[in-house]
From TrEMBL:
Cleaved signal peptide residues: none
Subcellular location field: Cell membrane
Record-given protein name: APC family permease
Species whose genome carries this gene: Streptomyces pyxinicus
Gene3D superfamilies to which the protein is assigned, alphabetical: Amino acid/polyamine transporter I (1.20.1740.10)
InterPro entries: AA/rel_permease1, APC_superfamily
Top-rank taxon, per record: Bacteria
Ranges annotated as spanning the membrane: 25-49, 55-72, 92-114, 146-164, 176-196, 216-237, 249-268, 302-325, 346-368, 374-395, 416-438, 450-472
Chief localization: membrane
Keywords (A to Z) from UniProt: Cell membrane, Membrane, Transmembrane, Transmembrane helix
């Protein structure tokens, strides 16, 4: 068995407890990136759900709420910046626990790669509005993946610098960006609802009106992806003054996200027909601004979209580095991920490494020529991965608190039945869609409408995760796999603070 850290040894990976509920809300809300999701996602959702997009969002929210309550319950018992990685490892098993941490890490790297490209595209749209269409003979085309990626990588470097210099300063910047983008979003969506020429119908809230089970399943996976990000609040639970603040921040951000998404979906449908909305794709929000207002006011939604993309990039760097930190502490990843900056109290080395990996993926994605095709590919693939790790974490909650089945119907419902049902819904949804992808094409082609290609990406996530787990277990002899029940209790020393609860030991 690998050597473990003695309980008396002071932790070498302790981060500073400086955050509160407000900071958790900022991180979670920025990570969910409502404005970006609305700006580039409404057209994609309309492709599958049609005019029932508002209903689809409400239906998708129900299992996500069950997942969020599972996170809050587990966080109350065991605050750990590895969250799902640690909870699944201790409750279900080391292999599914490692896989949870791995797919979160890889999914966030891919998300940051495509978000940096989206950010670059928004900057180029601003350049076009200023009548700058080329630089040194290079066309500044917002629809070009290559040019957008180059500009986006500059943005990625900038947000990484702010993430390294401290999470508290990062959340202050995120709050400023959130206030501006939400104000713009609410004003223009309200304007669209009041002045829109498309008649409102209660059928928009009827999920049974969606054309087919396949369209419903595809739309639900996309909707799950749109909600994705609220769990970022739980990655800073070792930096909050009270671990419950992380739970409150995540739940508040998730509730706000539901309201904004449904409100925006109705607004878009009041202003545009379904064919028009689908055709506009990732430019739907900027098109709405131009449709409702003259310049310079028409550019405000574009400015809000740029703020959202920057904030989302930054808030994705923060949780990804902390998840890798938790894995590094268990020796399932290298020790370099655990290094804390002595001045800023942040996992600086890991943060920079995450940036470098995301930049590499973004460069590889240049092979997909049009940015809307790249977005569709990333969203479909990551949606399956999000369903997998959310489902595993909810399952961990049901397994850990299974004793509540003897404590009465209310406790059984809260601790076991709701988490377990939420996990089954997401597993069933992911399994059905994976089967659809496997049977929809008769040949392989690297396009977003090829089922084998869409299935290949999440499959690679899982296969590489299992391979990395095997290396950690048998080559590095990580203590995470030593007990047969997940994380070894002595392999992690949680930071201590007089105002916070002490480290939690694994359940017997």
């Amino acid at each position: 068995m690998a050597a473990v850290i003695p309980e008396t040894e002071p932790p070498t990976t302790a981060m500073r407890r400086t955050l509160g509920v407000r900071d958790g809300v900022a991180i979670a809300a920025s990570s969910t990136a409502a404005t970006t999701s609305i700006g580039i996602g409404m057209g994609v959702l309309a492709l599958y759900a049609g005019r029932q997009t508002p209903a689809l969002l409400i239906i998708a929210f129900l299992p996500i709420l069950g997942i969020a309550l599972s996170y809050a319950r587990l966080n109350r018992t065991e605050p750990n910046c590895g969250n799902g990685y640690t909870w699944v490892g201790r409750s279900v098993g080391a292999w599914p626990g490692f896989l949870t941490g791995w797919v979160v890490l890889v999914a966030n790297v891919v998300f940051m790669a495509y978000t940096s490209t989206v950010t670059g595209s928004v900057v180029l749209q601003f350049a076009n509005k200023a009548h700058v269409y080329s630089v040194l003979g290079v066309a500044l085309d917002p629809g070009s993946t290559g040019v957008s990626t180059v500009v986006g990588l500059v943005a990625l470097v900038l947000v990484t610098v702010t993430a390294v210099t401290g999470v508290r300063s990062a959340t202050r910047l995120q709050w400023a960006l959130l206030v501006f983008e939400y104000a713009v979003l609410l004003v223009f969506c309200t304007w669209a609802i009041v002045s829109g020429h498309q008649s409102f119908s209660w059928e928009w809230l009827n999920p049974f009106a969606i054309g087919s089970v396949k369209s419903l399943a595809q739309g639900l996976v996309l909707a799950v992806f749109v909600f994705w990000g609220w769990d970022a609040a739980f990655t800073v639970n070792e930096e909050t003054k009270n671990a419950d603040d992380a739970s409150r921040g995540g739940l508040i951000a998730l509730g706000a996200m539901l309201g904004l998404l449904v409100f925006a979906a109705i607004a878009f449908q009041r202003a545009m027909g379904n064919a028009e909305l689908v055709a506009r794709g990732p430019q739907a929000l900027t098109y709405l601004g131009a449709k409702l207002a003259p310049e310079p006011w028409a550019s405000l939604p574009l400015a809000a979209l740029m703020c959202s993309a920057f904030a989302s990039l930054q808030s994705s760097v923060i949780p990804t580095a902390r998840g890798a930190l938790a894995m590094g502490r268990d020796r399932t990843l290298g020790r370099r991920w655990t290094k804390i900056h002595p001045r800023y109290g942040s996992p600086a080395v890991g943060t920079v490494m995450i940036m470098a990996l995301s930049a590499a993926v973004a460069v590889l994605a240049v092979g997909i020529p049009k940015i809307n095709l790249m977005i569709l590919t990333a969203v479909n693939s990551i949606g399956l991965i999000v369903a997998l790790y959310y489902g595993l974490t909810a399952l961990a909650c049901a397994v850990r608190f299974r004793g509540a089945l003897r404590d009465g119907p209310l406790e059984a419902l809260r601790r076991v039945l709701v988490p377990g049902l939420s996990a089954l819904v997401l597993f069933g949804l992911g399994g059905y869609l994976a089967w659809q992808y496997a049977t929809m094409s008769d040949h392989f082609e690297a396009t977003p409408d090829n089922g084998w290609f869409l299935l290949l990406i999440p499959t690679l996530f899982v296969v590489t995760g299992l391979t990395a787990a095997a290396v950690a277990k048998w080559r590095h002899r990580s203590a995470y796999f030593a007990t047969g029940r997940g994380t070894d209790a002595d392999a992690i020393a949680l930071p201590m603070d007089e105002s916070a609860r002490g480290p939690v030991r694994p359940l017997p």
